[in-house]
Known about the structure:
Largest sheet: none
CATH architecture of the largest domain: Orthogonal Bundle
Number of helices: 14
Radius of gyration: 21 Å
Strand content: under 5%
Order of helices and strands: HHHHHHHHHHHHHH
Structural class: mainly alpha
CATH topology of the largest domain: Tetracycline Repressor, domain 2
CATH superfamily of the largest domain: UbiA prenyltransferase
Helix content: over 70%
Number of domains: 2
Number of strands: 0
Amino acid sequence: MSHIIDLNDRARATGFMLLGIAISLRPYQWIKNVLVFAALFFSLSFLNLEAVILSLKAFAAFCLVSSGVYLMNDIRDLEADRLHPEKRNRPIAAGRVPVTVALTALAAFLASGLALGYSVNTGLLMVLLSYFIINVGYSFGLKRVVLLDVMIVAFGFLLRAVGGAVAIRVDVSPWLFICTLLLALLLVFGKRRHELASLKAGARRHRKSLADYTLPFIDGLMFVSAGAALVTYSLYTMADETAARFGTQWLALTTPMVIYGIFRYLYLIYIKQSGGDPTWMMLKDKPFVVNGLLWFLAVLAILFFSRTSA
Protein backbone atom coordinates (compact mmCIF):
# COMPACT_ATOMS: atom_id res chain seq x y z
CA MET A 1 0.00 0.00 0.00
CA SER A 2 2.80 2.41 0.89
CA HIS A 3 4.40 1.62 -2.47
CA ILE A 4 1.20 2.62 -4.28
CA ILE A 5 0.95 5.83 -2.23
CA ASP A 6 4.57 6.60 -3.09
CA LEU A 7 3.88 6.10 -6.81
CA ASN A 8 0.84 8.37 -6.60
CA ASP A 9 2.90 11.06 -4.86
CA ARG A 10 5.57 10.83 -7.55
CA ALA A 11 2.99 11.03 -10.32
CA ARG A 12 1.42 14.05 -8.64
CA ALA A 13 4.81 15.72 -8.23
CA THR A 14 5.65 15.03 -11.87
CA GLY A 15 2.31 16.47 -12.95
CA PHE A 16 2.91 19.66 -10.95
CA MET A 17 6.40 19.95 -12.41
CA LEU A 18 5.13 19.57 -15.99
CA LEU A 19 2.49 22.18 -15.25
CA GLY A 20 5.24 24.43 -13.93
CA ILE A 21 7.23 23.99 -17.13
CA ALA A 22 4.15 24.78 -19.22
CA ILE A 23 3.60 27.98 -17.22
CA SER A 24 7.28 28.92 -17.59
CA LEU A 25 6.96 28.62 -21.37
CA ARG A 26 4.57 31.62 -21.24
CA PRO A 27 2.21 30.32 -23.99
CA TYR A 28 0.07 33.46 -23.69
CA GLN A 29 3.15 35.43 -24.77
CA TRP A 30 3.05 33.66 -28.13
CA ILE A 31 0.59 36.36 -29.17
CA LYS A 32 3.71 38.50 -29.78
CA ASN A 33 4.73 36.10 -32.52
CA VAL A 34 1.73 37.03 -34.68
CA LEU A 35 4.06 39.76 -35.97
CA VAL A 36 5.43 36.96 -38.15
CA PHE A 37 2.22 37.20 -40.19
CA ALA A 38 2.67 40.91 -40.93
CA ALA A 39 4.62 40.15 -44.10
CA LEU A 40 2.02 37.61 -45.22
CA PHE A 41 -0.69 40.16 -44.57
CA PHE A 42 0.81 43.28 -46.10
CA SER A 43 2.37 41.52 -49.09
CA LEU A 44 -1.10 40.22 -50.09
CA SER A 45 0.22 36.65 -49.87
CA PHE A 46 -2.52 35.41 -47.55
CA LEU A 47 -4.33 33.75 -50.48
CA ASN A 48 -1.21 31.73 -51.33
CA LEU A 49 -1.44 28.39 -49.50
CA GLU A 50 2.30 27.74 -49.63
CA ALA A 51 3.05 31.17 -48.12
CA VAL A 52 0.47 30.57 -45.38
CA ILE A 53 2.07 27.22 -44.47
CA LEU A 54 5.55 28.76 -44.39
CA SER A 55 4.29 31.59 -42.18
CA LEU A 56 2.66 29.11 -39.80
CA LYS A 57 5.96 27.22 -39.55
CA ALA A 58 7.80 30.47 -38.86
CA PHE A 59 5.24 31.32 -36.16
CA ALA A 60 5.68 27.90 -34.53
CA ALA A 61 9.48 28.21 -34.71
CA PHE A 62 9.38 31.58 -32.94
CA CYS A 63 7.04 30.16 -30.31
CA LEU A 64 9.49 27.35 -29.56
CA VAL A 65 12.58 29.57 -29.49
CA SER A 66 10.91 32.37 -27.51
CA SER A 67 9.72 29.84 -24.91
CA GLY A 68 13.32 28.65 -24.64
CA VAL A 69 14.33 32.27 -24.03
CA TYR A 70 11.74 32.62 -21.25
CA LEU A 71 13.13 29.51 -19.58
CA MET A 72 16.67 30.87 -19.90
CA ASN A 73 15.63 34.21 -18.36
CA ASP A 74 13.84 32.51 -15.46
CA ILE A 75 16.91 30.40 -14.73
CA ARG A 76 19.27 33.37 -14.99
CA ASP A 77 17.00 35.70 -12.95
CA LEU A 78 16.20 33.15 -10.28
CA GLU A 79 17.42 35.21 -7.32
CA ALA A 80 16.13 38.56 -8.61
CA ASP A 81 12.66 37.11 -9.27
CA ARG A 82 12.45 35.94 -5.66
CA LEU A 83 12.63 39.61 -4.61
CA HIS A 84 9.71 40.61 -6.86
CA PRO A 85 6.19 40.52 -5.35
CA GLU A 86 4.73 38.78 -8.42
CA LYS A 87 7.66 37.07 -10.15
CA ARG A 88 8.63 35.15 -7.01
CA ASN A 89 5.63 32.91 -7.72
CA ARG A 90 7.07 31.78 -11.05
CA PRO A 91 7.60 27.97 -11.01
CA ILE A 92 11.40 28.09 -11.28
CA ALA A 93 11.82 30.91 -8.73
CA ALA A 94 9.39 29.16 -6.38
CA GLY A 95 11.32 25.88 -6.67
CA ARG A 96 8.49 23.90 -8.27
CA VAL A 97 10.63 23.22 -11.35
CA PRO A 98 14.27 22.16 -10.71
CA VAL A 99 16.90 24.11 -12.63
CA THR A 100 18.23 20.92 -14.27
CA VAL A 101 14.77 20.12 -15.65
CA ALA A 102 14.36 23.70 -16.88
CA LEU A 103 17.74 23.52 -18.66
CA THR A 104 16.71 20.29 -20.41
CA ALA A 105 13.43 21.85 -21.55
CA LEU A 106 15.32 24.93 -22.74
CA ALA A 107 17.63 22.82 -24.92
CA ALA A 108 14.70 20.83 -26.33
CA PHE A 109 12.63 23.88 -27.27
CA LEU A 110 15.58 25.78 -28.72
CA ALA A 111 16.72 22.82 -30.85
CA SER A 112 13.17 22.14 -32.08
CA GLY A 113 12.60 25.79 -32.99
CA LEU A 114 15.87 26.14 -34.88
CA ALA A 115 15.27 22.84 -36.73
CA LEU A 116 11.80 23.98 -37.76
CA GLY A 117 13.20 27.32 -38.91
CA TYR A 118 15.84 25.56 -40.98
CA SER A 119 13.11 23.45 -42.63
CA VAL A 120 11.63 26.72 -43.94
CA ASN A 121 14.89 28.25 -45.20
CA THR A 122 18.34 29.21 -43.95
CA GLY A 123 17.33 32.88 -43.82
CA LEU A 124 14.72 32.17 -41.13
CA LEU A 125 17.27 30.05 -39.25
CA MET A 126 19.64 33.04 -39.19
CA VAL A 127 16.87 35.32 -37.89
CA LEU A 128 15.99 32.83 -35.15
CA LEU A 129 19.65 32.47 -34.18
CA SER A 130 19.99 36.27 -34.08
CA TYR A 131 16.91 36.46 -31.86
CA PHE A 132 18.33 33.90 -29.45
CA ILE A 133 21.85 35.38 -29.42
CA ILE A 134 20.68 38.91 -28.58
CA ASN A 135 18.56 37.47 -25.79
CA VAL A 136 21.56 35.60 -24.43
CA GLY A 137 23.46 38.89 -24.42
CA TYR A 138 20.50 40.56 -22.76
CA SER A 139 20.14 37.92 -20.07
CA PHE A 140 23.85 37.76 -19.27
CA GLY A 141 24.64 41.44 -18.92
CA LEU A 142 23.17 43.84 -21.47
CA LYS A 143 19.92 44.13 -19.52
CA ARG A 144 21.90 46.15 -16.97
CA VAL A 145 22.77 48.84 -19.55
CA VAL A 146 20.32 51.72 -19.51
CA LEU A 147 18.37 52.22 -22.80
CA LEU A 148 20.20 49.32 -24.46
CA ASP A 149 18.13 46.94 -22.33
CA VAL A 150 14.92 48.37 -23.80
CA MET A 151 16.31 48.52 -27.34
CA ILE A 152 17.23 44.82 -27.29
CA VAL A 153 13.75 43.74 -26.18
CA ALA A 154 12.16 45.97 -28.82
CA PHE A 155 14.54 44.61 -31.46
CA GLY A 156 13.22 41.14 -30.64
CA PHE A 157 9.78 42.28 -31.84
CA LEU A 158 11.31 43.63 -35.03
CA LEU A 159 13.06 40.32 -35.70
CA ARG A 160 9.69 38.57 -35.58
CA ALA A 161 8.43 40.79 -38.40
CA VAL A 162 11.66 40.31 -40.35
CA GLY A 163 11.44 36.55 -39.85
CA GLY A 164 7.97 36.47 -41.36
CA ALA A 165 9.19 38.32 -44.45
CA VAL A 166 12.25 36.09 -44.81
CA ALA A 167 10.13 32.94 -44.45
CA ILE A 168 8.00 33.74 -47.51
CA ARG A 169 10.76 35.66 -49.32
CA VAL A 170 8.94 38.97 -49.76
CA ASP A 171 9.90 42.60 -49.28
CA VAL A 172 7.97 44.66 -46.76
CA SER A 173 7.96 48.44 -46.52
CA PRO A 174 10.63 49.83 -44.13
CA TRP A 175 7.85 52.02 -42.74
CA LEU A 176 6.23 48.97 -41.17
CA PHE A 177 9.48 47.79 -39.64
CA ILE A 178 10.08 51.22 -38.11
CA CYS A 179 6.51 51.37 -36.82
CA THR A 180 6.91 47.90 -35.28
CA LEU A 181 10.10 48.99 -33.51
CA LEU A 182 8.48 52.17 -32.15
CA LEU A 183 5.41 50.33 -30.87
CA ALA A 184 7.67 47.73 -29.24
CA LEU A 185 9.63 50.50 -27.53
CA LEU A 186 6.36 51.92 -26.20
CA LEU A 187 5.41 48.53 -24.71
CA VAL A 188 8.80 47.95 -23.10
CA PHE A 189 9.01 51.47 -21.65
CA GLY A 190 5.52 50.92 -20.22
CA LYS A 191 6.73 47.78 -18.49
CA ARG A 192 9.80 49.57 -17.09
CA ARG A 193 7.57 52.35 -15.81
CA HIS A 194 5.33 49.90 -13.99
CA GLU A 195 8.35 48.20 -12.39
CA LEU A 196 9.82 51.50 -11.28
CA ALA A 197 6.52 52.79 -9.89
CA SER A 198 5.49 49.58 -8.11
CA LEU A 199 8.85 48.48 -6.68
CA LYS A 200 10.05 51.98 -5.70
CA ALA A 201 13.17 51.55 -3.52
CA GLY A 202 13.43 47.86 -4.40
CA ALA A 203 13.47 48.50 -8.15
CA ARG A 204 17.26 48.43 -8.43
CA ARG A 205 17.48 45.08 -6.63
CA HIS A 206 15.04 43.60 -9.12
CA ARG A 207 16.55 45.16 -12.26
CA LYS A 208 19.84 47.05 -12.03
CA SER A 209 19.19 49.24 -15.08
CA LEU A 210 16.18 50.76 -13.28
CA ALA A 211 18.65 52.69 -11.10
CA ASP A 212 19.35 54.86 -14.17
CA TYR A 213 15.69 55.50 -15.01
CA THR A 214 13.27 57.99 -13.49
CA LEU A 215 9.53 58.22 -14.05
CA PRO A 216 9.72 61.60 -15.86
CA PHE A 217 12.46 60.24 -18.14
CA ILE A 218 10.46 57.13 -19.02
CA ASP A 219 7.29 59.20 -19.49
CA GLY A 220 9.09 61.38 -22.01
CA LEU A 221 10.40 58.36 -23.91
CA MET A 222 6.94 56.78 -23.96
CA PHE A 223 5.32 59.88 -25.41
CA VAL A 224 8.06 60.19 -28.04
CA SER A 225 7.65 56.52 -29.01
CA ALA A 226 3.85 56.80 -29.13
CA GLY A 227 3.90 59.96 -31.24
CA ALA A 228 6.54 58.67 -33.61
CA ALA A 229 4.64 55.38 -34.07
CA LEU A 230 1.42 57.26 -34.93
CA VAL A 231 3.21 59.49 -37.43
CA THR A 232 5.04 56.54 -39.00
CA TYR A 233 1.88 54.47 -39.44
CA SER A 234 -0.04 57.45 -40.82
CA LEU A 235 2.68 58.26 -43.35
CA TYR A 236 2.85 54.60 -44.37
CA THR A 237 -0.88 54.41 -45.12
CA MET A 238 -0.76 57.63 -47.15
CA ALA A 239 2.51 57.00 -48.99
CA ASP A 240 2.47 56.76 -52.80
CA GLU A 241 4.45 53.52 -52.49
CA THR A 242 1.66 51.99 -50.37
CA ALA A 243 -1.06 53.14 -52.76
CA ALA A 244 0.87 51.70 -55.70
CA ARG A 245 1.46 48.38 -53.93
CA PHE A 246 -2.13 47.82 -52.83
CA GLY A 247 -3.94 49.83 -55.47
CA THR A 248 -5.80 51.84 -52.84
CA GLN A 249 -5.40 54.77 -50.47
CA TRP A 250 -8.15 53.60 -48.14
CA LEU A 251 -5.69 52.16 -45.62
CA ALA A 252 -5.54 55.65 -44.13
CA LEU A 253 -9.04 54.96 -42.74
CA THR A 254 -7.49 52.50 -40.26
CA THR A 255 -5.38 55.23 -38.62
CA PRO A 256 -8.05 56.19 -36.02
CA MET A 257 -8.03 52.59 -34.74
CA VAL A 258 -4.26 52.72 -34.28
CA ILE A 259 -4.60 56.06 -32.50
CA TYR A 260 -7.25 54.61 -30.18
CA GLY A 261 -5.11 51.51 -29.50
CA ILE A 262 -2.11 53.59 -28.46
CA PHE A 263 -4.24 55.96 -26.38
CA ARG A 264 -5.94 52.99 -24.70
CA TYR A 265 -2.54 51.53 -23.83
CA LEU A 266 -1.46 54.83 -22.26
CA TYR A 267 -4.74 54.92 -20.35
CA LEU A 268 -4.08 51.46 -18.92
CA ILE A 269 -0.55 52.48 -17.93
CA TYR A 270 -1.30 55.86 -16.36
CA ILE A 271 -4.88 55.61 -15.12
CA LYS A 272 -5.25 51.90 -14.34
CA GLN A 273 -1.63 51.61 -13.16
CA SER A 274 -1.14 48.40 -15.18
CA GLY A 275 1.79 47.37 -17.34
CA GLY A 276 3.75 44.76 -15.38
CA ASP A 277 2.99 42.31 -18.15
CA PRO A 278 1.90 44.33 -21.23
CA THR A 279 0.75 41.28 -23.21
CA TRP A 280 -1.53 39.95 -20.48
CA MET A 281 -2.75 43.47 -19.68
CA MET A 282 -3.88 44.07 -23.27
CA LEU A 283 -5.40 40.61 -23.69
CA LYS A 284 -7.57 41.17 -20.61
CA ASP A 285 -8.76 44.60 -21.75
CA LYS A 286 -11.90 44.11 -23.85
CA PRO A 287 -11.87 47.56 -25.54
CA PHE A 288 -8.28 47.03 -26.61
CA VAL A 289 -9.01 43.53 -27.98
CA VAL A 290 -12.15 44.67 -29.82
CA ASN A 291 -10.28 47.60 -31.35
CA GLY A 292 -7.48 45.28 -32.47
CA LEU A 293 -9.94 42.91 -34.12
CA LEU A 294 -11.70 45.78 -35.87
CA TRP A 295 -8.36 47.09 -37.16
CA PHE A 296 -7.47 43.62 -38.45
CA LEU A 297 -10.82 43.15 -40.20
CA ALA A 298 -10.70 46.65 -41.69
CA VAL A 299 -7.21 46.15 -43.12
CA LEU A 300 -8.14 42.69 -44.40
CA ALA A 301 -11.28 44.01 -46.10
CA ILE A 302 -9.45 46.94 -47.70
CA LEU A 303 -6.59 44.79 -48.99
CA PHE A 304 -8.89 42.01 -50.21
CA PHE A 305 -11.20 44.48 -51.98
CA SER A 306 -8.28 46.25 -53.63
CA ARG A 307 -6.93 42.91 -54.86
CA THR A 308 -10.22 41.57 -56.22
CA SER A 309 -11.19 44.85 -57.88
CA ALA A 310 -7.81 45.30 -59.59
